[in-house]
Every structure is written in C-alpha cells, then in structure tokens.
From TrEMBL:
Protein family according to the UniProt entry: Belongs to the bacterial solute-binding protein 1 family.
SUPFAM superfamilies: Periplasmic binding protein-like II
Pfam families: SBP_bac_1 (PF01547)
Protein name as annotated: ABC-type glycerol-3-phosphate transport system, substrate-binding protein
PROSITE patterns hit by this protein: TAT (PS51318)
Swiss-Prot/TrEMBL keywords: Periplasm, Signal, Transport
C-alpha cells in the first residue's frame, strides 16, 4: 500500500520535492537544517556529469544540504555496497539495477519507500519498471531510467567490406547473416576481431536476449523451474560459444572479464559492438577518426532485447531516510528525469516522458534505434530478471557460461549445471 506524506511530516522535515512544487496544497519550504548525504553510483563521464547536475540543482533549492556523489567502478560496486551494509556504513542512497533491487528489498537493506511517496506515484511510471522495484506490494527504489542494446558499427569498415545495413526493425540481420558479415570482416582483416558483446563483469542477464530470440526461456512459464536445458537453451549456448571458438570476438570479452569493449570499438580493434545507448557520448567523443552508426540487434526466430536501466534506493543506514527520499523524489521527477536521460543518453521511465518522447541533443537518429528496440523486450524476460531470487543464481549462471566460452565446457554440461543451481534456489 502506498501512503501519502502528511502535513506534519512535511513541516517537520522541511523537505522539497521539486522547485515550486506542492503537496496537498502546501508549499514545500526549504530545508531548515544542515544535512549531508552520500549517493553511491557507477557510471560513465556523461552519467556522472548528469548526476552532478541534478545534485547542484537540489543543493541550490535546499541551502544547507550537501550531497556527495561516491563514484565506484561497476565491477566492484555491489561488493562494496554489501560490505558497507554489513558494517552498517552504507551510503544514504545507492544506484541499483532492476535485476538486483529484489535482494536488497528482501534483506531490508533498502528502505520501504511507501511512507515517503504520494498516492498514485505508481501510475506515473511505466508498468515494467514499477513492477521491478516493487516487492510484496511496496516500492524499495524509485525508477530512474531504462536502457537497452543495439549494434554499433564502424561505417567505414563495413563499407570496405560491402556490407549493407538494415533499414528497419523488421529488416534486421538474421543470426546467420550477422555471422556471415562477421566472417567477411574477419577475412578482409577489417579490425582484429569482427565484434564483441557488452556482458562483462558478470552481466549475465544480457545473454538472455539471444535465448529469447531463439525461442527459449531461462525458466518455465510460471517461473517455478529451470528451462535452459531445453533444446533452445542448448542451441543458444552453442551459438554464443562459437563466437569464441571461431575467433569472432576477442578472448578477453567473456562474461567474467572486465574488458571495456567500447574502447576496442573506438580504437578500431572491432568494427562492431553490441552495447547500450549510454555509450553514445563516449563513442561520439572518442571515435573521431571514422564514421559510425547504430543499427538493430540481429534476430532469429524473434527479436528480443534486454531490460536495462537502474533505480535508486535509500539504504537502511541512511541517517535521515525522509531527507534521502526527498532527494530521490527530486531526482526522478519529470523535469530532472528529462534532463538526465538527455544528458546521459538513457531512456525515460515516466509515462508522460515516454509518450512525449525526448528530443535528444546528441545522435537523435541512433537514439531512435534504441527506442525501437525497447519495444521488443519480452514480458517473460522482465519477470525473470526482476525476481528477488535472481541475484542468488545469476553469479553461478555467469560462471557456467564463462566456462563454456573460455574453457570449452559443453552446452549440455553448462545447461545442466545452471538448471541445477536455479532449481536449488527456487525450492529453498
């Protein structure tokens, strides 16, 4: 149940939800006392700058409030957050993917935000992301943005190989055509390797894109048991394993590595990369020696893409959770969300912004491809990766796929081990 904030709590805390906003007819006064809070995030330079811009606006509207941005490497982010939570020294607020919010909710490491948000807040956000942050009917994070994947390409190298690009989502390359083009780039020695996929640091949920494209599922329809051992699962493991066996991707780009494939793309090592929309500012800045663009992911029996993006949670160690929640409401209001997604090249999750569309300042054509790709995210995939138990079997899932890719473990052994791990977690 979502409770509205009452008059007494507003006046007691002196919180603002946004410049000039009102709650129940009451003007939101400036903060009456000094507060210091920490927001822990990871992110590219563009993301960090976008966070700092929102923080600056909030501090200007709330004299006496200081919010320190704690930027950590993504590879160590959750380990550091968990360590600080164990020591009861966690930051006041922390960024978290939709795939991980469930475990922080279950352990109550994240605060139930129901007392701090207005009635009807859920209706302001797209259903998928609000469902992702909600556990047992209560929200444990505020959705901030979403993102998804597409195919970046070096136009100069593809032109040299005589490779033509799709003109529409329906015309996207098939898996077979994608591999044919990759082999053509390899034969012509255009780049050291034809492509790479951004699933490093154990971002195993991104592999599911291909499983769903091939007609498979990680779990059965009601999410009660593993389904990866079905033929579609075995075939998808075998297909992605072949990328490494046939030298189509750099050996350093498997799931357990920390390779930044965007660096490989901008320096010409790979002419194609499967990556997210948030990389556009980096590529725009660094890839000045060649023309580049973005097209659709390859497709098989169907098209499918990843549920990406993050929410922000208030930690149980927040000294003043009400003040932290006030900043969180400000961060995710319509005006600030619009500015953040434009600056950091993300996609909005407020219904009004989704309906209106964002007039992106940077690479609007390429961002249009990503917007189209968001329409292909399977509902079953969303339900799978936002399960509270996802974080319990995902690391082992990543371990097994990594063994298949780097050590030649068979698809059958990989699927059997993953299925066993999943089933043990689901019945626990």
């Amino acid at each position: 149940m979502i409770h509205s904030i009452n008059r007494r709590s507003v006046l007691k805390s002196g919180l603002v939800l946004g410049a000039g906003a009102t709650l129940g007819g009451l003007a939101r006064p400036a903060l009456a006392q000094s507060r210091e809070m920490t927001l822990a995030v990871w992110g590219s330079d563009a993301e960090v700058a976008a966070y700092n811009a929102v923080i600056a606006r909030y501090q200007a509207a709330n004299p006496g409030t200081t919010i320190r941005l704690d930027v950590m490497p993504f590879a160590q982010f959750y380990q550091q957050i968990d360590t600080r939570l164990a020591g009861r020294q966690a930051p006041d607020l922390f960024r978290v993917t939709y795939q991980h919010i469930g475990r922080y909710a279950n352990s109550r490491a994240a605060v139930d935000l129901s007392p701090y948000i207005e009635a009807g807040t859920a209706e302001a956000f797209t259903p998928a992301v609000w469902s992702a942050v909600t556990v047992d009917g209560a929200p444990y994070g505020m959705p901030h943005h979403t993102d998804t994947f597409a195919l970046y390409y070096n136009a100069d190298m593809l032109d040299q190989a005589g490779i033509s690009l799709p003109n529409s989502l329906d015309d996207a390359w098939t898996w077979q055509r994608f591999i044919e083009n990759a082999n053509l780039l390899k034969e012509r020695r255009l780049g050291s390797y034809p492509f790479a996929m951004s699933w490093q640091n154990g971002s195993v949920h991104r592999w599911l894109v291909y499983l769903y494209q091939h007609g498979g599922k990680l779990l059965n329809d009601d999410l009660s048991a593993a389904a990866i051992q079905d033929p579609e699962g075995l075939e998808t493991i075998r297909w992605t394993q072949s990328w490494f066996q046939e030298g189509l991707v750099p050996p350093s780009t498997s799931l357990k590595s920390s390779e930044r494939i965007q660096n490989l793309f901008v320096n010409g090592t790979i002419p194609m990369m499967l990556n997210g929309n948030w990389q556009i500012p980096f590529v725009e800045q660094q890839a000045s020696r060649f023309k580049w663009g973005v097209t659709y992911l390859p497709r098989d029996k169907a098209m499918a893409d990843d549920l990406g993006g993050t929410c922000v949670a208030v930690s149980r160690d927040a000294e003043d959770p009400e003040a932290a929640a006030a900043f969180l409401r400000f961060l995710t209001d319509e005006e600030n969300m619009r500015g953040f997604v434009d600056d950091a090249q993300f996609l909005p999750v407020r219904r009004a912004l989704v309906d209106q569309g964002i007039d992106y300042k940077l690479r609007p054509k390429e961002m249009g491809v990503f917007v189209e790709m968001t329409k292909t995210v399977p509902e079953h995939l969303v339900r799978t990766v936002t399960m509270p138990t996802w974080g319990r079997f995902a690391p082992r899932f990543a371990d097994q796929l990594d063994l298949a890719f780097t050590s030649g473990q068979s698809p059958e052994e990989t699927a059997e081990t993953v299925a066993g791990d999943i089933d043990r977690v689901l019945v626990a």
